Amino acid sequence: EDITFVKKIGIGGFSNVYLGKWNQSFVAVKSVENQDDRADDVFEKEAQTLCALKHPNIITFYGISFSESRKLLIVEYFEKGSLDKYIEALTTRKINCSLEKKINYLLHIANGMAYLHSYKPNPIVHRDLKPANVLMSENGILKICDFGLSRSLNYETKSAMTSNIGSFYYLSP
């Protein structure tokens, strides 16, 4: 475990997220305490999902680490943070963004989602897509993150996806 924790940068439903340093690079480290079976299931499913995904608009997964007290999920770090912070800066007029750039950002998200929905052998449904789960790189690339609620579809699950899972204001109608 060659990870140095720099500071806490977020809190999730089952975890805390830290800025870390690993292999001389900054990374985001999701930390899950080893106390809750539900949190363990979410962690394992997210790690399995991220390990399989390789796309320019999906967060890059570096690995996992275990200790007696917690599990760590290591992914790429985005200094600019999430899209919700960018949208807030736009609405308070702290920054400007051209229509062309906004359309380009939407295409990044659409490309990432198209990749997930056409993933073989079984498509993946994110189930919690919202601005807080889209990260922005320094060079303006958007990447989808937080796959804790995602689900891989197969023949049996296609008709059983009716539960209201996700963030209330971002649920489909």
UniProtKB/TrEMBL annotation:
<dbReference type="InterPro" id="IPR000719">
    <property type="entry name" value="Prot_kinase_dom"/>
</dbReference>
<dbReference type="Pfam" id="PF00069">
    <property type="entry name" value="Pkinase"/>
</dbReference>
<keyword id="KW-0723">Serine/threonine-protein kinase</keyword>
<protein>
    <submittedName>
        <fullName>Predicted protein</fullName>
    </submittedName>
</protein>
<dbReference type="InterPro" id="IPR051681">
    <property type="entry name" value="Ser/Thr_Kinases-Pseudokinases"/>
</dbReference>
<dbReference type="InterPro" id="IPR011009">
    <property type="entry name" value="Kinase-like_dom_sf"/>
</dbReference>
<comment type="similarity">
    <text>Belongs to the protein kinase superfamily.</text>
</comment>
<dbReference type="GO" id="GO:0004674">
    <property type="term" value="F:protein serine/threonine kinase activity"/>
</dbReference>
<dbReference type="InterPro" id="IPR008271">
    <property type="entry name" value="Ser/Thr_kinase_AS"/>
</dbReference>
<keyword id="KW-0547">Nucleotide-binding</keyword>
<feature type="domain" description="Protein kinase">
    <location>
        <begin position="3"/>
        <end position="173"/>
    </location>
</feature>
<dbReference type="InterPro" id="IPR017441">
    <property type="entry name" value="Protein_kinase_ATP_BS"/>
</dbReference>
<feature type="binding site">
    <location>
        <position position="30"/>
    </location>
    <ligand>
        <name>ATP</name>
    </ligand>
</feature>
<keyword id="KW-0808">Transferase</keyword>
<keyword id="KW-0418">Kinase</keyword>
<keyword id="KW-0067">ATP-binding</keyword>
<dbReference type="GO" id="GO:0005524">
    <property type="term" value="F:ATP binding"/>
</dbReference>
